[in-house]
Amino acid sequence: MTLLMSFDSREYMGPFPPKSFSTQWYENFFGSRLYMNAAWNSILIAAMAASLSTVTGLLSALAFVRFDFRGKPVMEALIVSPVIVPGVIIGFSILLFFSSIKYYDGISRLVFAHALISLPFTFRILYNSLQGIPAALSEAAQSLGATPRQTFFDVTLPLVRSGIVSSYLFALALSLDEVAVSIFLVDPRSMTLPITLLANMRNQFDLTIAAASGVLILFTIVIIVVADRLVGLDRVIGQGVYGSKK
Fold first, then answer.
1. Is 10 helix (H, G, I), strand (E, B) or coil?
2. Among the listed residues 89, 86, 167, the one whose alpha carbon sits nearest the alpha carbon of residue 126
3. CATH number for the 21-239 domain, one of 2.40.110.10, 1.10.260.40, 3.90.1170.30, 1.10.3720.10?
4. Per residue in 51-61, is it b (16+ CB within 10 Å) or e — as a string?
5. How far apart are CA 124 and CA 122, in angstroms?
6. What is the pTM of this model?
7. How confident is the model at residue 24 (pLDDT cuts 50, 70, 90)?
């Protein structure tokens, strides 16, 4: 419905479906400095947050698969807790934290927040991927003289490449659509596209908002489809690389 309304030729939001179509709202969107700056901020923040979340998720998953340590269930609960805790609470808590240390850069705050809320997903994807690698492969590499570092970069990383790609793209999609956490952390220089849409809906409404929403929806769908085509999300998320351990 949103996509259809974004092509409506009327100057106002009328009854659905539209009787005639036009690309005027997309022209308004791509010609708007406000929307283009917000879109660039969203892409920049999403790329950095997805990178941070993927690296953190990989290192955390590696520690959980390779080592047994006290407090492991508690640590896992903390990692996945952003899925359970409402975004409003997460956003307000992060705002209080950065205010307490007098750090006010909006981009950095958003990158940290978006990485945090996507970490449960990157962690789970990469945990399943690492768990699916037979331990015999690493043991064989080390028995042939490979150091732990060489084993990680030459054996482990290539085998979890699909999981890394999937987790990065998944985190990217989550960041691009994030509103509940971001609304507490943005400043005028770090306005993201979803927050800009929300602000414009409150102040004035025209179908440029529908066009911007359509671009955001299509971009997110493309990311998910690309991830599925490249690596098969159901395979990576569900079973890892080699399938579940017996």
1. coil
2. 167
3. 1.10.3720.10
4. ebbbebbbebb
5. 6
6. 0.83
7. confident
